[in-house]
Amino acid sequence: MGGMQSLCAAALHPTRVGRVVSISACARSHPYSIALRFAQRQALMADPNFNRGFYYEHTPPHVGMKLARAVATVTYRSGPEWEQRFGRRRRLPEQPPALCPDFLVETYVDHASERFCLQYDANSLLYVSKAMDMFDVSRSVSDRLQRSREASAGSGAASAPAAVCMHESEQPAGEASRAESAAEIRADLVAGVRGAQQPALVLGVQSDILFPVAQQREIAEILREAGNPSTPCTATTRS
């Protein structure tokens, strides 16, 4: 999320940003990343202790949080890294196969997700995750958000929080947004970063599946097309 914020800050508040270094970010959240975060949220909200977010006086949704973090942990590491660190080694190779953490890679995922549960709030995870899904540096999105803020300020009403839809039947009626052409999307993104004229460096990791190198190239390209004088470059590294 920090990479998203850096790009957005450079575009929307250019006088406050001197240089931009974007590491494993994106210009807009792509469907694959959105789908993964959706699966995490569904696992969390399926925990009966989630109680639609009202769990603070009761038992927290520990199991749901752990499952959500397990899904996330898998996306933070590449296949080659899993192979190098753990391979197919088992914790107790002489014992019969077990459904509890058995392979060393399973013990790692289990430990990492368990530790996360004790350090992070479930509702915070949901809303930060959804904010990442909604991220889009396109000009049309920035303009729409600005109009919404102005309308809220004028009426004195606070913005409505995201609805907790536990099931598809709870979703409000309406039509899906129309599909945009690749040319329309590109032009909108370029217009959105027109204000980002600072020296820029875009970095990515070749083995990253959540924010792949193609998305880093997209950031560098739209900055160039927006007239960024530093000719932003994309550097990649292996995980």
Structural write-up:
The two termini are 19 Å apart. The protein has helices spanning 2-12, 31-45, 62-75, 79-85, 104-117, 122-134, 139-155, 182-192, 213-225; strands at 20-23, 200-205, 233-237. It has a three-stranded parallel sheet with strand order 1-2-3. The longest helix is centred in the middle third of the chain and has 17 residues, at 139-155. The radius of gyration is 21 Å and the shape is globular. It is built from nine helices and three strands, in the order αβαααααααβαβ. α2 (31-45) runs antiparallel to α3 (62-75), α2 (31-45) packs antiparallel against α6 and α3 crosses α5.
Search tags:
239 residues; mainly alpha; 3-stranded parallel β-sheet; globular
Mean pLDDT: 88
Radius of gyration: 21 Å
The biggest beta sheet reads:
3 strands, parallel
Assembly state (oligomeric):
single chain
In short:
By secondary structure, this protein is mostly helical. It contains 9 helices and 3 strands; from the N terminus they run αβαααααααβαβ. Strand 2, helix 9 and strand 3 form a beta-alpha-beta unit.
Reconstruct the topology from this structure.
Blueprint (H helix, E strand, L loop, with lengths): L1 H11 L7 E4 L7 H15 L16 H14 L3 H7 L18 H14 L4 H13 L4 H17 L26 H11 L7 E6 L7 H13 L7 E5 L2
Parallel strand pairs: 1-2, 2-3
